[in-house]
Design brief:
Elements: H1 2-6, H2 11-31, H3 37-54, H4 58-84, E1 92-93, H5 98-120, H6 127-145, H7 151-168, H8 172-195, E2 197-198
Parallel strand pairs: 1-2
């Protein structure tokens, strides 16, 4: 009887399960820096978009739409990076400039405050956390398309905050996904530090 209760029944539960399964594959491929991660990110983002829309988490819904677009960009960006590196099968890292880091931090602070204020007026279920997750995840995804190792630090913070947000909303499938995202981000950081080569 208890096992039957674990099987997703409602559309919301089924979508969360789909996001979790595709997300787990995405995490493994992201740590290994395998180009197929972008295709699984598309699937994860599509299911998560539906979940967040159904749950009135408007910034997270926008974030998942952004993830879909960035996955397409990532596919082409990483193909270009592989050609530049001679197609060698290795972890290719790029150093962000100090200007990029400063601009990214300043933009993140301004956007968090601005989006939070907008979400307060839209009856968002968790306006502050939703805003922070949106901004940090968008930044981390952009840095991932550029193959910056530093994206893992941003992911650790963003995913931890997202985990707290989904727990507070009782979205346990999404919470489980982000629990694993936090773990994979730590593993990814260690793996990229050990195996990565700057190009």
């Amino acid at each position: 009887m208890e096992l039957i209760q674990l099987i997703p029944h409602t559309p919301l539960e089924i979508l969360q399960a789909a996001a979790l399964l595709a997300g787990l594959v995405f995490m493994v491929l992201q740590v290994l820096q395998h180009r197929w991660m972008w295709y699984f990110n598309l699937a994860t983002s599509a299911a998560s978009l539906a979940v967040t829309l159904m749950s009135s988490l408007w910034a997270s819904a926008a974030l998942n739409a952004y993830f879909i677009v960035m996955s397409v960009i990532g596919i082409f960006s990483w193909k270009k990076l592989a050609r530049k590196d001679g197609g060698k099968d290795r972890l290719r890292l790029v150093r962000p400039s100090s200007g990029m880091l400063v601009i990214s931090i300043l933009a993140a602070v301004v956007l968090c405050v601005g989006i939070w204020q907008v979400l307060l007026a839209t009856q968002d279920a968790s306006p502050f956390l939703d805003a922070v997750v949106l901004v940090l995840s968008a930044l981390a995804t952009w840095w991932l398309t550029r193959s910056y190792k530093e994206q893992w630090y941003v992911w650790i913070v963003a995913d931890t905050i997202a985990l707290a947000m989904y727990v507070s909303q009782g979205l346990w499938g999404m919470a489980a996904l982000f629990f694993f995202y936090v773990i994979s981000s730590v593993i990814g950081l260690v793996h990229w530090q050990k195996k990565g080569t700057y190009v």
